[in-house]
Each structure stands twice: as C-alpha cells, then as structure tokens.
Specification:
The protein has helices at 42-54, 58-65, 76-87, 151-162, 175-195, 206-222, 229-242, 246-264, 269-279, 306-313, 317-325, 450-464, 497-505, 509-516, 519-525, and strands at residues 2-7, 11-16, 25-29, 33-36, 89-93, 96-100, 108-109, 115-120, 125-130, 141-142, 354-357, 360-363, 368-378, 382-388, 393-398, 417-421, 435-437, 443-446, 471-472, 479-480, 484-485, 493-494. By secondary structure, it is α+β, with helices and mostly antiparallel strands. It folds into four domains: 2-162, SET domain (Beta-clip-like, Beta Complex), CATH 2.170.270; 175-315, no CATH class; 340-448, OB fold (Dihydrolipoamide Acetyltransferase, E2P), CATH 2.40.50; 451-525, no CATH class. A six-stranded mixed sheet has the order 17-15-14-13-16-18, with no helix packed on it. It has a three-stranded antiparallel sheet with strand order 3-9-8. Strands 4-6-5 form a three-stranded antiparallel sheet. Strand 21 (484-485) and strand 22 (493-494) form a beta hairpin. Helix 5 (175-195) packs antiparallel against helix 6 (206-222), helix 6 (206-222) packs antiparallel against helix 7 (229-242) and helix 8 packs antiparallel against helix 9. Bound molecules: zinc ion (3 copies). Residues 473-513 form the MYND-type domain. Keywords: Metal-binding, Zinc, Zinc-finger. InterPro entries: SET_dom, SET_dom_sf, SET_domain_protein, TPR-like_helical_dom_sf, Znf_MYND.
C-alpha cells in the first residue's frame, strides 16, 4: 500500500504506492518502546529505554536508531532518548504516555493531513486511517499538533518542537488566501467556545445549532475529511435529541459515526459507542430535556434534493420559507413601495389603502415607504431628511416614546435606507409635509443606499428565481437545471466552486451575501415584516 521513499524537502516519508480509498486502515501497530505517563528524570528514562532497546530484534534496533533525532548525544542511551523525544506518538492509557511505532513514526506532518493517527484503546493498537482518497504517489501525512491554529503559530510550534519549517499546501498559500484560512480557523475556535466544550456546558438551543451548522460549513470550506467533523455532528445530535427531535438526532449521530469509522475504524471506542446512539437516539440521557422539536426516528424526510435536506436537517427555516413562498417581491413596484407623493393622507381614511375589519380600519394590502437618509438633526426629537424613490426630499419625525433614542446611533447614517411600513403623508403644524413616525416596530434601517438596495433586489430576483425549470448561475450567467446554492444566503446559485469564486470576488457577492444574511432585509424582499 505504501513504501518508504525520499520526499523532496522532508528526507524520507511514507508514500502511497497504490490508490488508497478514504477510510482505509493504512497502519495497525504496537509500540516497540514506550515511556511512562508520569514525569521521570532523564537518568531513569535512559535506563528504562536502554532495557527496551536491548530487547529489540536486530532489524528493529536498526530501524529505531536510524530515526530522525533533533537532540545532541554522546552515547546510545542519549541517542535513544533523543529519538524518542523527536518521534514518539501519544498513547495516554494504562500508565503509558507515549511510544515508538516503527512505521507510524516515519509519517511526516502536514497541516492539511490526508490521514489520521490514533491510539485505539479497545484493541490496544495505534492506527492510521486515510481521511480522504489518497492517490498513488501521494505522500501519507498526519497532523502533529493539537488544536488547529494560525499559520504563524503552527509554524512556530513545528519549528520549536519538531525542528522543521512546514511547507504543506496550507502553509504555502499566497498571503491573502492564507489570511482567509487563518480567519476561518479563528472563527472555528471562536465557535468552539460559543458551542461549549462538552455536553454539560452546551445550551441546547437553535442558536447553538446555528453555530454548529456554521462550524461544519467552515470545516468543509477548509477541505475534505476534516477530523473535527464527527465531533461537530455529535454536538448537533445532542442538541436535536435534547429537544426531543429523534429524526435529526439519528441523522446527525450517523454522520458522526461515519466520520469516526473513516478516521478511527469500526473497532474504535467512538464508533462503537455512538453507533449504538445512532441506532437508538432516545437512549441518550439528554433525551426529553425538552420536547420542543419532537419527532420520531422514522420522520426523516425522503426524496428531498440535497440542499433542501440540509435545510431541513439544520432547521434553517428562513431560507426554506422564502423558497416555498416564491413570493420574491419587486422593490420597484410602485404600488407596494410608493414614493411619498403616493402615500395615503393621515387626516382622512383613504379607502384605496384601508378597509373596515371588525369595526376598525386595517390596511388592505402591503405598502412600505423607502427613503435614503440625507441628513439628521435632533431638537425635541430625532428628525431625518429622506430622499424617496422619486428623488424627492421629505422629513421624517420621530414621535415615538423614545423620540428616536430607541435606535442604535450607528444605524442613523447618511446613505442608509429607512423602510416605514404603512407610512402616511402627514401635514405638520410647522414645516413641510412628511412622515410622523409613532410605533417603533413600523420602522427599520438598512445599512445600504436606496440605489444599492434596489439593485440587490433586482439581482436576487434574477438569480434566485427559477424560470422554466432553470436558474441562472451568478458566476457565468449560464442557465441550468441543477446548480448549487450559496450556503450562506441560499439566494444565489452557481455551477461549481469556480463560478462561486467569481461571484464572490468579482461580482460583489462577498458584500451582498453579508447584507442578505440580515433577516430583516430578507423579510423586506418577501414582504414579511417581523
Ligand atoms: Zn503546514
Ligand atoms: Zn457558472
Ligand atoms: Zn450568499
């Protein structure tokens, strides 16, 4: 399956001499030398190690003594200690701290490793599994460090502890991409804190599930077969099960088990333990903590397209509703988004806009006034000067209880756009006619100009709507029946990663996607006002 070969820049390493499929157990090994878990002084260690070296076969002894050594030595005992410090892998069971494995210790490091090492306590062997398909000729690599960290920190640790400068794919990325990668890692670590490190601290809320969803998304952006995935899926399973949702709990637990089976093998503790959880999610102690999301294991929906299935699984209700409604509105529709001149007057009931329901007048349809902030002053109350869709300037007076102080000051900025639901024309005692704003819930401010807001809406209509069974790729403008949607906003669709990159970097989706994540803005686009 593999052979010891020269690897450019790294000395020797294990190289695949045939295609190795993902999940293959590449190595299964017992240690030839071990060191204890407890701290011991060098003299004690040297004796302890020498005894083990002496009892090795001649072939094993030679293999051991030819291993890389970062430490100076004057005799075989010191050399052996140096080799162990340089090469040993953790065992952390039965009082043993670490051990030398004649094959596994020959595997080089990569920050983008294609294989995973693990001490499997159930079979008391060290294993190495392919995390993804490893093509013939590719070097087999493992990850030497603990937690993922930024390039600078990784490189320093590898240099200090193992004496080499890592030149793996991730470490050789151009500066900008490397910074993106570091940011991703930083966010993953931050999410780790937000999610909580174990079941005891975790809050089993939809918000926490959102964090896990984001984390899985970031892992997948990092590359295939990330070893953090099974843990993330287990977190998701626990959140679902704690809320009585056995269907999702089952799917998440199966994904966790699948990940561990790949990385650690069918006989690992994790695969076995969580395999039985996937079979029977109701057995988890957390089950029934709440029954808010109650489902049974057999309620997993069948026949959904993969994107819709993921939306269901992660309870991403918002984007789904948007698609189901299919009621994307046109912000240029003057009847729904009228200029100031077309608003009903406040001094009488305009029966084009209002009808009587149970004795009181209610709006007959949806309308919303849009205006861009051109100025603001605060005297008795906040007053904004707005430019409407007809390029006409009008004042908006805050007659709310807070007189405008209820708004985040950062939102009141020239160039931001105000939306007022069911706005009316009001004639003030003094000054120009304008809008008299009383109920804080009827007003929203978006951090974007009116022109930009309209353009974004045009784009969403163009790129997220299906016409005659096809959508248009936002990267290359080709029409196709099956495209992949942007995992962040679910509104733009792409042929592949290449087109998505073009959309993101060259066609402005990076900034737009951020705007489109705002539920209020999405709501505006589907006439939904919460
Ligand atoms: Zn690296
Ligand atoms: Zn395309
Ligand atoms: Zn997006």
């Amino acid at each position: 399956m593999y052979a010891l070969r020269d690897v450019p820049g790294k000395g020797k390493g294990l190289v695949a001499i045939e295609d190795i499929p993902k999940g293959t157990r590449v190595l299964l090994e017992q240690p030839v030398i071990t060191t204890p878990e407890r701290q011991r002084d060098d003299e004690w260690l040297k004796t302890h190690i020498s005894q083990q070296v002496d009892s090795l076969s001649e072939h094993q002894r030679q293999s051991f003594l030819s291993m890389h050594n970062l430490y100076p030595y004057q005799n075989v005992a010191e050399q052996s200690l140096g080799i162990i410090r340089t090469n040993s892998l953790p065992i952390e069971a039965d009082g043993i701290g670490a051990g030398i494995f004649l094959k596994a210790c020959l595997i080089n490091h990569s920050c983008d490793n294609n294989a995973q090492k693990n001490w499997n306590q159930s079979i008391k062997r060290h294993t190495v599994h392919a995390l993804r398909d490893i093509p013939k000729g590719e070097e087999i690599t493992i990850y030497y460090l603990g937690l993922d960290s930024s390039r600078a920190i990784r490189q320093k640790k590898l240099q200090d502890k193992f004496g080499f400068l890592c030149s793996c794919r991730l470490c050789s990325l151009p500066t900008e991409q490397s910074q993106d990668n570091d940011k991703r890692l930083e966010r993953i670590n931050r999410l780790d804190d937000l999610i909580g490190l174990d079941g005891m601290q975790m809050i089993f809320s939809l918000r926490t599930l959102r964090y896990v969803d984001e984390r899985v998304h970031l892992y997948n952006e990092q590359g295939p077969g990330n070893s953090g995935l099974p843990r993330a899926y287990l977190d998701a399973a626990q959140i679902a099960i704690a809320n009585g949702d056995l269907a999702r709990g089952h799917v998440f637990a199966e994904r966790a088990v699948e990940g561990w089976r790949t990385a650690l093998g069918s006989d690992s503790k994790e695969t076995i333990e969580y395999g039985s959880l996937a079979q029977n999610p109701a057995k988890l102690q957390l089950y029934g903590h709440s029954m808010k999301w109650k489902t049974s294991s057999d309620e997993v929906p069948q026949g959904l397209d993969p994107n819709d299935f993921e939306d269901w699984l992660w309870r991403r209700e918002e984007p789904r509703k948007l698609d189901q409604l299919g009621q994307l509105t046109d912000l240029r529709n003057y009847k729904i988004f009228p200029g100031f001149a077309a608003l009903p007057n406040s001094n009488s009931v305009d029966l084009e806009f209002y009808g009587k329901v149970d004795g009181t007048y209610k709006p007959l349809h949806y309308w919303c006034f849009l205006g861009e902030i051109v100025d603001s002053i605060t005297l008795h109350h906040l007053e904004l000067e707005l430019m409407d869709v007809d390029d006409k300037k009008i004042p908006l007076h805050f007659n709310t209880d807070g007189r405008g102080s209820e708004l985040e000051p950062a939102k009141i900025q020239r160039g931001h756009t105000v939306a007022v639901l069911y706005a009316q024309r009001h004639v003030f005692m003094y000054g120009d006619p304008g809008i008299r704003h009383e109920n804080p819930q009827m007003l929203k401010i978006f951090p974007v100009s009116l022109k930009k807001l309209l353009e974004l809406n045009d784009q969403v209509q163009q790129f997220s709507t299906k016409v005659d069974g096809t959508r248009t790729c936002h990267g290359c403008s080709k029409k196709a029946e099956s495209l992949n949607r942007c995992g962040k906003c679910s509104l733009f669709w792409y042929c592949d990663n290449g087109c998505q990159r073009i959309g993101w970097n060259e066609r402005g989706h990076k900034a737009d996607c951020k705007l489109l994540k705002d539920p209020d803005l999405r709501g505006l686009f589907v006439l939904k006002w919460d």
